[in-house]
């Protein structure tokens, strides 16, 4: 499995960090996790394309995580797009209704190939890829989900946006790679989001092999402060996400 960070930031405009999005490659299949503004261009920059995606997983429907979802659906109807394989769009509970009410009226789903939208179950299998979803505490208005992808004995977890959750440690257990949102430093914690210390504590409890912090709001000070505060809790392999950073997990 391979992950490429498309956007490691938030909804705050930044020339360095785009809005949240990640490319996941599993064998010959390609998926998106979230689809923030700028995702379609970032796909082109890494040598990929929305044309080749097999599906996408939306953690929640806050604007910074779905900014390019409507443009992507619209682009899939444009002349010159040749594809036959299905595209499946997954989201948290209520996502199908959200798509039908908000997205479809301005970007009708394509009709030249199978295009499916569904609320993600807690566990399912697609072509040998096991996918699990876990509810996360983030917003009172929208449901949120973390996703875990298991393939050939390896596991990658994307937290989406979340506050502390005891169950999330179990969901992360033994992951080869965990991408945890880390919006602010410990002293500036915002409700509904994690901080470096909380990320480190979760990763340590779950015995995560590699932790990648992501979803950064701008801070006053060097990015190394995120690492320093997380390292106080977690002694494993640790890094900060950067746009277009690539991480590969061997079988």
TrEMBL record:
Pfam family, one: Lactamase_B_2
GO molecular-function term, one example from the UniProt record: 3'-tRNA processing endoribonuclease activity
Hydrolase in keyword set: yes
Record-linked SUPFAM superfamilies: Metallo-hydrolase/oxidoreductase
Known EC number: 3.1.26.11
UniProt-listed SMART domains: Lactamase_B (SM00849)
Keywords, sorted A to Z: Hydrolase
Domain Metallo-beta-lactamase stretches: 18-193
Tagged with keyword Membrane: no
Superkingdom assignment: Bacteria
Designated name of the protein: Ribonuclease BN
Species of provenance: Candidatus Magnetaquiglobus chichijimensis
């Amino acid at each position: 499995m391979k992950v490429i960070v498309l956007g490691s930031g938030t909804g705050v405009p930044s020339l360095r960090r785009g809005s949240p999005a990640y490319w996941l490659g599993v064998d010959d299949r390609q998926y998106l996790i979230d689809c923030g503004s700028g995702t379609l261009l970032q796909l082109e920059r890494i040598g990929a394309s929305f044309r080749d995606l097999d599906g996408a997983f939306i953690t929640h429907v806050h604007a910074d995580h779905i900014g390019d979802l409507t443009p992507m659906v619209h682009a899939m109807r444009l002349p010159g797009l040749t594809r036959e394989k299905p595209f499946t769009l997954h989201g948290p509970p209520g996502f199908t209704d959200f798509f039908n009410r908000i997205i479809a009226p301005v970007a009708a789903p394509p009709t030249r190939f199978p295009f499916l939208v569904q609320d993600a179950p807690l566990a399912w299998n697609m072509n040998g890829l096991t996918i699990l979803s876990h509810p996360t505490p983030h917003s009172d208005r929208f449901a949120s989900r973390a996703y875990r992808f298991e393939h050939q004995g390896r596991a990658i977890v994307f937290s989406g946006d979340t506050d502390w959750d005891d169950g999330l440690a179990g969901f992360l257990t033994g992951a080869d790679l965990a991408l945890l949102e880390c919006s602010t430093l410990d002293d500036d914690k915002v409700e509904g989001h994690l901080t470096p210390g909380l990320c480190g504590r979760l990763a340590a409890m779950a015995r995560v092999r590699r932790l990648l912090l992501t979803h950064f709001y701008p801070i006053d000070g060097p990015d190394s402060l995120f690492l320093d505060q997380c390292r106080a809790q977690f002694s494993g392999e640790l890094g900060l996400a950067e746009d277009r950073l690539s991480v590969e997990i061997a079988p």
